[in-house]
Amino acid sequence: MQRHVVGARLEKMTKAPNPLKVLVVDDDREILDFMQTFLTGEGCEVETLSDPSSAESAVRAKSFHMVVLDLMMPDMDGVQVLERIRKVDDDIAVVIFTGYPSLETAVQSMKLDAIDYLKKPFNPQAFRDVIARVMQKKGLLRSPEEELHRTIGAIIRSNRKEQSLTLKQMARRTGLSVSLLSQIERAESSASISSLYKIARALDVRVRELFGDF
C-alpha cells in the first residue's frame, strides 16, 4: 500500500531544478552500468564505484543525497560500508539492494537507518517510489501549486523589469503593498485573483499570460 501511495504522490509533484545526486556502489560493472542508465533516466545525477572501500571518501568529498549499496561485495559488505558512511554523514539516504536477502542483514541495515532494503532484480516502480521518498525528504520536489506560484512570480518580475518598473511604482499602480508584491514575486505568498487582475492591468498584459504554460 505504501508503494502505491508514494508513487501517486510522485505523479502529483514536480521535480525541482536541483536533481537527486546518487552514488551507486557495486562490484558488478554490469549492475553499475544498468543503474547509471536507469537513474539518469529518472533525472538523477549519478556516480558509480566498483570499490566499496572508496565509498566513505566519496561521501566525504561530495554532497550526495542518496547512496545505493550492494550487500554482497568482496572484502567489505554493504553493511560494513554503511557503518562507515554513517560515521561521515548520518543524514544521507542509503538503499541496500541484494540478490541474497536475509532477515539478519535487513535488521542490521534498518538499525543503521537505511531507507530501504531491496531484492535484486528490483521492480523499477519500487525504486522510483524510493527516489520519490528521498526527494520529498530532501526538499527536491514541489507541488503543482508551489510550481504555479513560482511561475507567476517569475513572469511578474520579468515583465516588471522589462518595463523598468520598481516595486514602489507597481504598488502605486495596483494599490497593493510593496511587501505583498515582493512576496508574490518570490513565491512566498499566494496571489488572489483580484491581486493578479490588478497586477496584469498594471503591466498591460492579460491575466492568463501570468500563468505561463499552466
Question: Can you walk through the features of this model?
Answer:
- By secondary structure, the chain is α/β, with parallel strands linked by helices.
- The protein has two domains: 2-142, Response regulator (Rossmann fold), CATH 3.40.50.2300; 144-211, 434 Repressor (Amino-terminal Domain).
- It has ten helices and seven strands.
- It has helices at 2-11, 29-41, 55-61, 78-88, 103-111, 124-137, 144-162, 167-174, 178-185, 193-203; strands at 14-15, 21-25, 45-49, 66-70, 93-98, 116-119, 141-142.
- It has a five-stranded parallel sheet, with helices on both faces.
- β5 (93-98), α5 and β6 form a beta-alpha-beta unit.
- α1 (2-11) crosses α6 (124-137) and α3 (55-61) runs parallel beside α4.
- It is elongated.
- The two termini are 31 Å apart.
Envelope shape:
elongated
SSE run = HEEHEHEHEHEHEHHHH
Q: Specify the CATH class of the largest domain.
A: Alpha Beta
Number of strands: 7
Percent of sequence in beta strands: 5-15%
Q: Determine the mean pLDDT.
A: 85
Number of helices: 10
Radius of gyration: 23 Å
**Spatial strand arrangement across the major sheet:** 3-2-4-5-6
Report the structural category: alpha/beta
CATH fourth-tier homologous superfamily of the largest domain? Response regulator
The number of domains is: 2
Spatial gap, N to C terminus = 31 Å
CATH topology of the largest domain: Rossmann fold
Low-pLDDT stretches: 1-16
Architecture of the largest domain in CATH? 3-Layer(aba) Sandwich
Biggest sheet descriptor: 5 strands, parallel
The helical percent reads 40-55%
